[in-house]
Amino acid sequence: DQGQIAIKLMGFSKGVTVQGGLPVPITTPAHGTAYDIAGQGKADVNATANAFRIAARMGLAKHLN
Question: Quick one: how far is CA 19 from the chain centroid?
Answer without folding.
Answer: 10
